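All the exercises in this workshop are built on plain-text protein records. The record below serves as our worked example for the rest of this section.
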Amino acid sequence: WDKELISSNTGNYASYSNLPGGSYTLHVKAINPDGTENPQQAGMMIYIKPPFWKTWWFYTLCVLAVAALLYFIYRLRMDRMIAVEKIRSKISRDLHDDVGSTLTSINIWSEVAGKQLEKENAQSAEYLGRIKNSSQNMLDNMSDIIWAINPVNDTIEKVLVRMKLYASEMLEPKNIRFQFIVDDKIKGTIIPMQYRREWYLIFKEAINNAAKYSGAKNIYVNIELQQQYLIMQINDDGIGFIRQEKNDGNGLRNMQERAAQMKAEFQINSLPGNGTRILLKQKFT
C-alpha cells in the first residue's frame, strides 16, 4: 500500500488512515544519528477486517440475489406467455367448435331450403339467399379470427401459406397469373397476433380488389425484410384508377385504417392504364 519507507523524525508512530481491508506488513528500519542504517528490518503483520459490504460472501449473495430476481422475472414472463397461449388456444377451439359449427348449420340449411323454395316462393328464396350469403361471410370472418388467435400460426411461414392459398382461390378462376416472391431472410420471423391478422386482411383486401376490378393479367407480390422492416409490395398490370381519397371505397379505407392501427407505412399508387401498386411497411423490434 505504501512502497517507500518514511522517516519518522522525532515521532514514535506511523499513521495510515482509510486502509482497505486485508493483510499488511509494517516494515521498520533503524537509522543512527550519524546516518548509518541498520541492514536488518523489523516487520509486523497487520490484518484489517473489511466492512461486510466489501466481503466476498456479500458479493456472492448480491450475484445470487440478482440471478434469482432475473430468473423470477423470466419465469413470470414465461408463465404469462404460456397462460396467454392457453387462453388463445381455448378461444380458438371454442369458436371453431361452437360458433363455427352453428354457422355451418345455418349455411347448409338455408341453402337446402332455398333450393326447395325456388319454384314456390321467389321472395322467400331471396331472403334465404341473403341468410346464406351473410352466414358464409361470417364463416369466412370467423375462420380468419380463429386462425389469427391460434398461437401455432405466429410464424411468418403460416401467414405466407394462408396468403398463397387465398390468392390462388381468388385469381385462378379469373385466369390471373400470380407471382409470390419471399425473401429467405424472413423465414422464422415471429409476427405478433395483433399484427398478423391485420397484415393478412390487408393482403386479402388488395387481392380481392385486384381480382374484381383491376382487369389485370398478372399480379406480383414481393415480401422482404430490410433491417427491422417487413415490407410487402403488391403490383398488378391492370387498368388502374385515379385516386380520390374522399371517395375511396370501404376496402381502401379499411386497409388504411388497419395499417394505421399497426403504425405501419401504407401507400397506394395507381394511374389509368398503369396498374396499381400497394406498399405496406411495418417495423418489428
Observations:
- Strands lie at 22-31, 37-48, 177-182, 218-226, 229-236, 265-270, 276-283.
- The helical segments are 56-117, 122-149, 156-171, 193-214, 250-261.
- The chain has five helices and seven strands.
